[in-house]
Amino acid sequence: MGDHPVTAQDAAQPQDPARPQASRQPQTRPELRGWDGPWTGLRALVTGLGVSGFAAADTLAELGARVVVVDGTDTAKTRRDAETLRLVGVQQVLLGPEHLSGLPLVDGELPEILVTSPGWRPDSALIRAARAAQIPVLSEVELAWRLGARPGARAPKWLVVTGTNGKTTTVTLLESMLIADGQRAIACGNIGVPVLDAIRDPQGYDSLAVELSSFQLEYTELLSPVASAVLNIAEDHVDWHGSFEAYRAAKAKIYENTELACVYNADQQITEDMVAEADVQEGCRAIGFTTGSPGLSMLGVVEDLLVDRAFLEDRAHQALELAGLEDFGPLAPQHLIANTLAAAALARAAGAAPEAIRAAVQGYEAGDHRIQPVAKADDVLWINDSKATNPHAAAASLRSFTDVIWIAGGLPKGVLYDELIAEVAPRLRRVILIGTDSSQLRSSLERHAPGVPVIGGRLREDESRSAVDASLADEDGARAMRAAVAEAAKALAPHHTVLMAPAAASMDQFASYAARGEAFIEAVTELMTD
């Protein structure tokens, strides 16, 4: 493997990020840094007893803080977790909704800091009360960054990733690239392993592949990553943040104080604008990725090769081959290629060799419910993409196929569908809408894809609502999915793809997107065995 010449015309090098400066320190309680900081006796409130909240409470207790935990649920699991935390020194665990209306006292006084789990909205009573009392509100991610590696353990490079879609795929690939390079690395953050657990590892890591949600970034003042990436931005979680502008601002925080590389999506101007607006460390570079031919300081695709024109000296005339499209196997959707290039940029910033990139690509297996082939019969492909919970994710799926029978619908989370439908209308052959109220999606289809037959999505009061419409809107998700699969089967023709990519959340009919995906798989299996 060696340098691969690039024949495409070079693009201009992207603008360097604005206002480079030396590494900054936090402005809020700056003395709370390191394992030897003044944690002993600190009055700390932790909101949420999920995975990250448990790790935060456990860590603060280990540091000698006086810790109170609040969680709105009182279940057998939270009671077990509460007992475990009491055994390791947590002062008090308050379970149940009655504890959510006001700030609890710690040792008879207000807390000095609040460490919140990512699910807690900024307008929740406890968060608003803390801010009104000028109590610092930190994410568990910022707490991990402030502490750093455990004394005696190696200090890791932080490689951080956010975006509306593709975060988990990207950090999973990034972890594989780093491990293939011989580094001790772990994927953590929003992917399941709390960052606090990673930094408390006695041995430590060479690199952390950190997935960050907009919720976590909302409560993070400042990190100091070696490299950072925003994969894409589209309307999502507008109901949680209050506006798209607030959502964008939370995502943009990931670039602040980056040391070596701000990785952005060259096919989406908004991410490059975020880099240009960021305060970064002196010498930090803007590194783009694109599924087209890359310009200078970019990674991209030339013919059937993924190439690097950023992390080599003669990038003006050459590109380094990283992998081939054939390394992905039979299915290489455009969004997977983009996520791979973003992961490769971060891995290269951490010193990974090109051979490690290819090894990770060859070993990659897509997770369940993400463009997951379920069945193929009579030249018809059935695809489960239940993880496509917003229009941007659904668009990535729909771009991968033509002649689509699309199963969609669910909770829209405050997003709009017109742009999605206008783009993908030529690919649609029929649309089947599940969800207790998918009328907004149906309305967009009627405006922007008037020639495409649509089943479902009518309001209860609609006189033309049929028994099939009622089944698709049933609160029993399994029943609704069986109805959707049955309707899809009626319209099949050779070369069609039945794609379940809902572009909406699942909670109106299912416990989770995974439960929705399993319901689709079961319904297709029943159809094939009839």
TrEMBL record:
Protein localization: Cytoplasm
Mur ligase central domain segment(s): 161-347
HAMAP family to which the protein is assigned, alphabetical: MurD
Class of the enzyme per the UniProt entry, highest EC level: ligase
Keyword Nucleotide-binding: yes
Predominant location: cytoplasm
Mur ligase C-terminal domain segment(s): 369-502
PANTHER family: UDP-N-ACETYLMURAMOYLALANINE--D-GLUTAMATE LIGASE
Reactions that this protein is recorded to catalyse: UDP-N-acetyl-alpha-D-muramoyl-L-alanine + D-glutamate + ATP = UDP-N-acetyl-alpha-D-muramoyl-L-alanyl-D-glutamate + ADP + phosphate + H(+)
Chain spans, region Disordered: 1-36
General function of this protein: Cell wall formation. Catalyzes the addition of glutamate to the nucleotide precursor UDP-N-acetylmuramoyl-L-alanine (UMA).
Protein name: UDP-N-acetylmuramoylalanine--D-glutamate ligase
The entry's keywords: ATP-binding, Cell cycle, Cell division, Cell shape, Cell wall biogenesis/degradation, Cytoplasm, Ligase, Nucleotide-binding, Peptidoglycan synthesis
GO CC terms, sorted: cytoplasm
Gene expressing this chain: murD
EC number: 6.3.2.9
Alphabetized SUPFAM superfamilies for the sequence: MurCD N-terminal domain (SSF51984), MurD-like peptide ligases, catalytic domain (SSF53623), MurD-like peptide ligases, peptide-binding domain (SSF53244)
Gene source species: Nesterenkonia aurantiaca
Pathway: Cell wall biogenesis; peptidoglycan biosynthesis
GO process annotations (BP): cell division; cell wall organization; peptidoglycan biosynthetic process; regulation of cell shape
Binding-site residues, ATP: G163, T164, N165, G166, K167, T168, T169
Example of a GO MF term: ATP binding
